[in-house]
Description:
Elements: E1 2-14, E2 27-39, H1 51-63, E3 68-69, H2 88-102, E4 109-118, E5 121-126
Parallel strand pairs: 1-3
Antiparallel strand pairs: 1-2, 2-4, 4-5
Amino acid sequence: MFQVRVEASFAAAHFLKNYHGKCESLHGHNYKVYAHVKGNRLDEGGMLVDFGILKETLRSVCAKLDHSNLNDLKDSKGNDVFFQNPSAERIAKWIFDQIEATLQNTEAQLFAVDVFETETSRARYSIDF
């Protein structure tokens, strides 16, 4: 099994509802995001997926979050993306869903997205095959 990982970053503000502590107030992070893909077959060039394409996909998704208040993020229908509560776990799932939609016609399968709020605090959304 081959695995590839790319990373990107974004800066954003958020606050957490139903949380009792300093994170219930508006604050910000410089998020780091890793996207992990895997697969059994390589393309004619010997690659699972082109790093450049995967990296650009991740950067494009992160750009939608960059320099925003994540609590205010809406989808195309005007619905709250994170249900007014953008935890790192929900951010990881949202990024996963956005990337997965772009990889449907490749041999590579997205299996995990890591979202770091700090160097020591990470949330992961992953799937098993």
